[in-house]
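Q: Please design a sequence for this.
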């Protein structure tokens, strides 16, 4: 408690004690009450209890150590290529692959026509390549981040609600006594909570809370990252987790898998509670004050119940049967919290427990196979034993065991109605177990059918591959025979080519002689032809030069006429634009003047309104001042009148006294008319 409040409390308490002591001296009732109270059974105890909670920080260190791996993965997520197949019109097909040709060959109704051996399709199946980030590994990381967010947030809320440690002081007073014809039972229980004197404990918890808040902010930023937005519509993974090659060989993914197992295993929030207790003694003065408190309580309640007895008797009563409570003795265990770990997550089957069960089952299968003659017999024994464990759990929990005890049959005092209800309930449970096993059995049949179908498909693929291999071998043999025949034909053709080459060499010599004679003749003809062409070219060039000069003169005249016409047109256009510009300037000037006049008129109106408002305000102010002066003047008149009246009464009183004194002395006063002063003269 603060010092200021403590001082006020001390002052009030001392005053109250003095008043109570003085009342006890004046009345006899307190002495009688204290005598009856002390003759009864009284119990007082007062304890000081300090309770400190210290939370486990193992999970904080673990999550902090795995954060770098998660951040590294979300910055560079794994991706794969996704091929989307779509049948489009031939005009929209951008790229044709081998799959498009195979699809067209199996869907011939998409062929428009075949022209000269060329296939003209009207539609084609095209593949669009898309980068897919919805891989199993990325979905695993997305699910892990969601789990980690809820894991940290739930513990943050729990630590926030239980972070403050405190110490409390408890006072308990119980009294049983007889007062006249009344049996009185009185009890008072008061608990004070206050901060610990040792501040270091709360500082540790606050530092732990700071780390948890930092982790919460960090995981919140990861949850709102572009990686999570990119995988927003993807499906979350469900245990058991498949360990792909990436998750086995990549260090960061392996760390994330270990974090998943840690979250499965750590489903509570453990904390330690340190309790310190000490008994506080009650002094004689303190005991006297408690007895006075009991006196106040008894007198207040007894007096009010006696005064309001008629009113209470008129209240209607309600009758009911209330069973008695069982009271235990109060100890330190009743006033503190037990340090039980707080269960945060559900303890249903998860990856950690699944792995442990897999290890046990694998060990059992290996043992049974070693004992048995064949693999099938050992596997059947292991499965039967595993199923028998679950059956034993059901039978033990629901009490479905068959009781073959002979002595239980001799007991004939069982209630048949209870027995019927019990057998119906057990039959209902047995039906539920049977239906559940039927679902499991049907799932096993579906799995077996699926595997048989896969075996059939694999067998068909194997036969097809064997047929394809035989066809390839036949084709290879046929190609080899063709190559052999072609090799023999090539040898024969080579011999024929050698004979033909000798004949060609003889003909080539004859042709070279003839070519030389023909070249000489052609050279003579070319010389004559070149001379004739040169003369014709000279005459043609002279004729073309004359025509070109005449055309140039005509073009110059034509261009000059066009230039003059363009200049005249340009001058007309310039004059027209100048006229339009002048008109626009005049129009703008006219509009500006009109706007200026309108603005001036508005300013004048505004000034006039402001002047009128100011005049009205001054007029009202002047009227208020006049009213105030009038009121002050009226008050002054009333004050002067009262003062003058008081003075006149004083003078009259003094005059009467003087007259009485003169009469006593035997003298008669001379009465003269006294002029009453006017109020306005005084003013």
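A: Design:
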């Amino acid at each position: 408690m603060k010092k200021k409040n403590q001082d006020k409390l001390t002052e009030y308490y001392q005053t109250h004690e003095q008043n109570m002591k003085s009342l006890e001296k004046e009345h006899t009732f307190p002495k009688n009450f204290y005598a009856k109270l002390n003759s009864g059974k009284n119990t007082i105890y007062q304890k000081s209890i300090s309770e400190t909670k210290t939370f486990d920080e193992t999970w904080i260190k673990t999550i902090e150590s795995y954060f770098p791996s998660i951040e590294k993965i979300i910055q560079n997520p794994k991706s794969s290529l996704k091929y989307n197949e779509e049948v489009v019109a031939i005009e929209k097909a951008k790229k044709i692959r081998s799959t498009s040709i195979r699809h067209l060959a199996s869907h011939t109704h998409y062929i428009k026509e075949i022209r000269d051996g060329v296939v003209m399709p009207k539609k084609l199946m095209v593949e669009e390549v898309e980068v897919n980030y919805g891989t199993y590994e990325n979905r695993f990381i997305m699910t892990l981040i969601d789990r980690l967010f809820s894991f940290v947030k739930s513990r943050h809320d729990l630590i926030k609600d239980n972070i403050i440690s405190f110490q409390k002081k408890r006072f308990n007073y119980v009294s049983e006594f007889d007062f006249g014809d009344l049996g009185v039972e009185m009890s008072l229980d008061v608990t004070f909570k206050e901060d610990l004197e040792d501040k270091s404990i709360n500082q540790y918890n606050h530092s732990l809370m700071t780390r948890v808040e930092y982790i919460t902010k960090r995981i919140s930023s990861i949850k709102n990252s572009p990686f999570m937005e990119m995988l927003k519509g993807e499906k979350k993974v469900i245990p058991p987790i498949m360990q792909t090659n990436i998750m086995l060989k990549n260090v960061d993914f392996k760390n994330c898998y270990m974090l998943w197992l840690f979250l499965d295993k750590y489903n509570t929030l453990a904390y330690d509670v340190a309790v310190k207790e000490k008994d506080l003694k009650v002094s004689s003065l303190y005991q006297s004050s408690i007895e006075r408190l009991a006196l106040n309580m008894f007198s207040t309640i007894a007096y009010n119940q006696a005064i309001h007895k008629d009113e209470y008797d008129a209240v209607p009563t309600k009758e009911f049967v209330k069973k008695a409570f069982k009271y235990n003795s109060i100890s330190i265990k009743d006033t503190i919290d037990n340090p039980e770990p707080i269960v945060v997550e559900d303890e249903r089957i998860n990856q950690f427990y699944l792995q442990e069960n897999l290890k046990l089952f694998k060990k059992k299968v290996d043992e049974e196979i070693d004992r048995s003659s064949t693999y099938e017999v050992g596997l059947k024994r292991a499965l039967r034993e595993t199923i028998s464990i679950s059956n034993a759990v059901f039978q033990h929990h629901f009490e479905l065991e068959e009781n073959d005890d002979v002595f239980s049959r001799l007991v004939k005092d069982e209630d048949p109605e209870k027995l019927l209800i019990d057998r119906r309930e057990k039959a209902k449970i047995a039906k539920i177990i049977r239906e559940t096993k039927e679902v499991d059995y049907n799932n096993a049949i579906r799995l077996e059918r699926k595997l048989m179908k896969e075996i059939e498909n694999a067998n068909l693929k194997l036969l097809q591959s064997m047929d394809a291999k035989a066809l390839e071998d036949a084709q290879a043999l046929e190609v080899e025979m063709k190559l052999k025949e072609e090799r023999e034909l090539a040898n024969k053709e080579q011999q024929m080519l050698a004979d033909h080459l000798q004949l060609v060499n003889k003909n080539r010599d004859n042709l070279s002689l003839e070519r030389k004679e023909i070249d000489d003749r052609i050279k003579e003809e070319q010389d004559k032809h070149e001379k004739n062409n040169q003369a014709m070219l000279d005459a043609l060039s002279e004729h073309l030069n004359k025509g070109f000069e005449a055309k140039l003169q005509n073009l110059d005249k034509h261009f000059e006429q066009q230039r003059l016409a363009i200049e005249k047109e340009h001058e007309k256009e310039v004059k027209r634009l100048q006229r339009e510009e002048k008109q626009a300037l005049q129009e703008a000037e006219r509009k500006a003047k009109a706007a200026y006049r309108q603005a001036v008129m508005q300013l004048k109106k505004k000034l006039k309104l402001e002047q009128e408002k100011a005049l009205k305000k001054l007029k009202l102010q002047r009227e208020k001042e006049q009213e105030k002066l009038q009121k002050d003047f009226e008050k002054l008149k009333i004050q002067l009148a009262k003062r003058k009246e008081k003075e006149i009464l004083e003078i009259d009183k003094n005059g009467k006294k003087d007259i009485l004194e003169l009469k006593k002395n035997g003298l008669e006063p001379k009465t003269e008319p006294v002029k009453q002063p006017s109020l306005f003269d005084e003013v």
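Q: Thanks. Anything notable?
A: Confidence is low (pLDDT under 50) at residues 324-337, 403-412, 671-683. The longest helix spans residues 416-664.
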